[in-house]
Each structure stands twice: as C-alpha cells, then as structure tokens.
C-alpha cells in the first residue's frame, strides 16, 4: 500500500516529488497519514498537536541534521520513528570545514582584512595533528578530506569503536589528552546536553598557543567568553567559527574585531546545497517505510542525535 505522507508546513515541490518517487502519496494530514516530512517553519506546538491528534503518524522526517530544537518533543513521543538529515549533508559541510581549516592556517582571514602589503605568514596543514570531535557523516567527511594532508587524525566519539581512516579513536574521556597535542581542533558533533560548553575555559587552556579551533557544529558547544579571552591573550593561534553563541553574532561583539577570529554566517551548507540531498533522503525513507526496511538517519531519542 502506498504510504500517505504530509509535507508541512507547505508542500514544497522537490519534497512532494521525492515522496512520489519513493512510492508515497502526498495528502493533507488525516487519520490515514503515516509520515510527516517537515520543512523549516513548522513550530513545535503545531507538530505536537498533530502527533497527539493523529497517532497513526509513525515517522517524522526532520529538515536538518541537528535535532536539538526537537529534543523535548522526541522525548515525549519516543515511540515514533524520527529521522533527520544526519549523514546526508556531510559533503558540503565537510568541504566548508576544510576551507576554514586552510583559511586560518594560511592566514587568509588576516590577508582579507589587510589594507596594505604585509609580511608572508601561515602554516601548512601537511603533517599536522588534527582532532575531530564527532564521527557522524560530517565528521567522517572531514576525516576523509583532511587525510589528504595528514595521517595524524584523532576522532573523538561517544563509544570506542575505531573510525576507519583515523590514526586514533578515543571516547569523550580521552578528549583532554587529545587536546594537549592538537594543532587543529574541529568540532563536528551534534548539540546535546552533554556537548553544551564542551570546550570551556579549562579545555581551551589545554590547547597549545599554536593551536587553532574550527567550529562547524553548534555555537553553544564553545564557551564564547572563554574563547574571546583566549584569543585576546594570545593563548590560541586562531578560531574559525561558522556557528556562534549567541547566533547571529551581534554587531559590536568582540569576536568581530578579534584579528585571530574568522566568522562566517552558518553557511557550511546552504539551502541550494542541501535540498537535493534532503530530497534523496526523503525518497529513500518513503520507499523504506512502504516496504518495511530500516529508515535512514534514525535519531537515537535517548542520545538526542
């Protein structure tokens, strides 16, 4: 039987086509609805009302890789199958992470601010020790790309199963030791209660003054005040932040004028980049829902990602 799917809040054309290509039928929400495909813009209260009113909804496809804004709702409805874009957006975000790494190591941010000819500066990524926090689709893509420059890559993840291609795989308990040797620290983990302020003043102090921080995950994973202090005092060589806390970063914030900071407006992936990737995920999940195969991008409700 063709699964009946609602695309909300508006039936966006590419997602409607994806549902149909997967063998589903797009209809308004009813008691026959088996799945919801969300675009950005549906508020949590509306979603909760739908889940309460229509218990036949077995699957909810969330629009992004990060699911922290839905965490409370997922905890209240753990019996539903929640899927996200995790793993699907690794290519564009990993590409941008590499761009940020190279930019801060080679001093591109300083050159972009300069108004006169200056002295050469920068360091190569080749042979550097890189620590990647997170082993999902984004973290693994960063690992793949950075491996072209160095074999000294440590991946930090929740469990000890080795990540193929990494020189070392450590759990969260090994993060502190990994930071002491890092030339580049890349944050690519999901935002959860456990990763909030993961990089605080204490952990920033573990990094050497020659080290660089790159955050393409979520802003609250870093203690912004502690980072501002570390950069201003020269205790960190530089930081590239595609995400900030607060976000958007307000005008006049010290990070804007910090010469060691490179700020980008959460552009690791753009809508044009991720739309075809999300549509492909939706098509496969509709097909899997109809045939009983496991869904892609399942969210571990207990873990929060």
UniProtKB/TrEMBL annotation:
Pfam families: 2-Hacid_dh_C
Keywords: NAD, Oxidoreductase
D-isomer specific 2-hydroxyacid dehydrogenase NAD-binding domain: residues covered: 99-268
Spans through the membrane: none
Source domain of life: Bacteria
InterPro entries for this protein: D-isomer_DH_NAD-bd, NAD(P)-bd_dom_sf
GO terms of molecular function: NAD binding; oxidoreductase activity
PANTHER family reported for this sequence: 2-HACID_DH_C DOMAIN-CONTAINING PROTEIN, D-ISOMER SPECIFIC 2-HYDROXYACID DEHYDROGENASE NAD-BINDING DOMAIN-CONTAINING PROTEIN
Protein name: Hydroxyacid dehydrogenase
Organism of origin: Arthrobacter yangruifuii
